[in-house]
């Protein structure tokens, strides 16, 4: 993460005073510090003091050079790499400004709200083993703009969602074979670089989902593993998410993985319960015959979300909204998709324990029962899962 410390000119001048050997030595030390403080660098990190006269040079290096993850890949360290965010000198400044302007978050409001939330979680009779770490609680406060009562309601909805859809939400292990295969195929992954507003971009290749091989449980878990991994990063909680979905290769059989009522219920509750700030949702290569399905699915979201949907008829049109430089090479960028997927798999791996620990939380109160589908919907010429015209829908 970038660190402010003087003007850009002074930072680079300070950096240039170091020899290549000194720079590499300091950078190795920074990497060690990064592992200890969670890849976060701020001007008040005490460990910076150990660099003595080179303190400003170290800050210059951190600001000027992309973060190198522990796997050696630049820009894949879980925060999407260091980049210039439109209107701000660094990602750090962008996060602080957006948090204050859009979420009413500052040091005082954050500390007060965290204290109230932790006391409530500890005293609540409805929640058992609730996570008390700041990063978990803040995701709910931020999505509700630091309204403590609304954040409390959202946590209860989140646990309720995990209860009634436990077959989707529990054991979010990316190493589970079907989930691993979907993620590794590129069905769903986060781009390593952020967009111009600092948001992580979630990229989906809908055609990679084989409806004859995978269950709706596999599909749901791939999405939830992705979302929960990204929510572990506080910058993502503040800046929100951009989505790009390529519908090339989709088929009618994919829609048979869900019944309309089931899809409607999970989208409605999921939108209210999963604390994500979805800012833009872009669709590319929507087949004409699939527009009816697209229109139906869009109605399942709130009006606020529907207003953030964008259809693009060409890659060039998508590039007008999403910087092609951050997209996979196959979509006009510079980094091949296979490399992006590998970087994403390593990022998910680093959050595996945190995701599995979510299962320790329990809600003692279930609002209503839900009977999960126990068999995989039939995906063949005799499609039976969707009624009416969906049943006969074919996509070129």
Protein described:
Helix content is 47%, strand content 8%. The protein has 18 helices and seven strands. The strands form two sheets. The chain has a five-stranded mixed sheet with strand order 2-3-4-5-6. Strands 1-7 form a two-stranded antiparallel ribbon. It has two domains: 8-65, no CATH class; 89-396, CRAL-TRIO lipid binding domain (Phosphatidylinositol Transfer Protein Sec14p, 3-Layer(aba) Sandwich), CATH 3.40.525.10. It has 396 residues and is of the alpha/beta class.
Question: Tags for this entry?
Answer:
18 helices; 5-stranded mixed sheet; alpha/beta; 396 residues; Phosphatidylinositol Transfer Protein Sec14p; two-stranded antiparallel ribbon; single chain; globular
- The name CATH uses for the topology of the largest domain is Phosphatidylinositol Transfer Protein Sec14p
Q: What is the overall shape?
A: globular
Q: Give the full name of the CATH homologous superfamily of the largest domain.
A: CRAL-TRIO lipid binding domain
Under the CATH scheme, the architecture of the largest domain is 3-Layer(aba) Sandwich
| Terminal CA distance | 45 Å
Structural class: alpha/beta
Q: Strand share of the residues? A: 5-15%
Q: How can the largest sheet be summarized? A: 5 strands, mixed
Helix content: 40-55%
Number of helices: 18
User: What's the structural domain tally?
Assistant: 2
Give the C-level CATH assignment of the largest domain.
Alpha Beta
Subunit organisation of the chains: single chain
Give the beta-strand count: 7
Strand order of the largest sheet: 2-3-4-5-6
Poorly predicted runs are 1-21, 30-51, 54-82, 368-396
Helices and strands, in N-to-C order? HHHHHEHHHHEEHHEHHEHHEHHHE
Q: State mean pLDDT (0 to 100 scale).
A: 78
**Integer-rounded radius of gyration:** 22 Å
């Amino acid at each position: 993460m970038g660190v402010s410390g003087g003007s850009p000119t002074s930072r680079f001048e300070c950096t240039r005073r170091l020899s290549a050997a000194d720079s590499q030595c300091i950078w190795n030390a920074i990497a060690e510090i990064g592992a200890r403080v969670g890849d976060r660098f701020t001007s008040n990190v005490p460990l910076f003091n150990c660099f003595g006269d080179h303190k400003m040079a170290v800050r210059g290096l951190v600001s000027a050079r992309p973060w190198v993850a522990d796997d050696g890949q630049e820009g894949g360290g879980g925060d999407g790499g260091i980049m210039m965010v439109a209107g701000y000198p660094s990602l750090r400044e962008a996060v602080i400004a957006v948090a204050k302007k859009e979420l009413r978050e500052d040091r005082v409001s954050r500390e007060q709200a965290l204290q109230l939330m932790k006391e409530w979680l500890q005293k609540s009779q409805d929640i058992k083993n609730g996570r008390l770490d700041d990063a978990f609680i803040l995701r709910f406060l931020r999505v509700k703009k630091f309204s403590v009562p609304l954040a409390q309601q959202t946590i209860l909805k989140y646990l309720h969602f995990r209860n009634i859809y436990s077959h989707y939400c529990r054991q979010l292990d990316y190493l589970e074979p079907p989930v691993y295969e979907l993620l590794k195929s590129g069905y769903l992954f986060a781009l390593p670089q952020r967009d111009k507003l600092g948001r992580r971009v979630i990229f989906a290749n809908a055609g990679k989902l084989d409806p004859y091989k995978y269950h709706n449980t596999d599909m749901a878990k791939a999405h939830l593993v992705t979302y929960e991994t990204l929510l572990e990063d506080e910058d993502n909680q503040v800046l929100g998410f951009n989505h790009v979905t390529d519908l090339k290769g989709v088929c009618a059989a994919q829609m048979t993985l869900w019944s309309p009522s089931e899809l409607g219920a999970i989208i409605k509750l999921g939108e209210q319960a999963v604390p994500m700030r979805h800012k833009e949702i872009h669709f590319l290569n929507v087949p004409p015959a699939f527009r009816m399905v697209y229109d139906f699915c869009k109605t399942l979201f709130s009006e606020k979300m529907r207003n953030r949907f964008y259809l693009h008829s060409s890659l060039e049109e998508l590039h007008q909204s999403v910087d092609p430089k951050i997209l996979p090479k196959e979509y006009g960028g510079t980094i091949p998709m296979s490399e992006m997927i590998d970087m994403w798999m390593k990022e998910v791996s680093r959050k595996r324990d945190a995701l599995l620990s979510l299962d320790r939380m329990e809600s003692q109160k279930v609002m209503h029962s839900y009977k999960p589908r126990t068999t995989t919907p039939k995906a063949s010429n005799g499609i039976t899962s969707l009624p009416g015209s969906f049943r006969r829908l074919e996509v070129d």
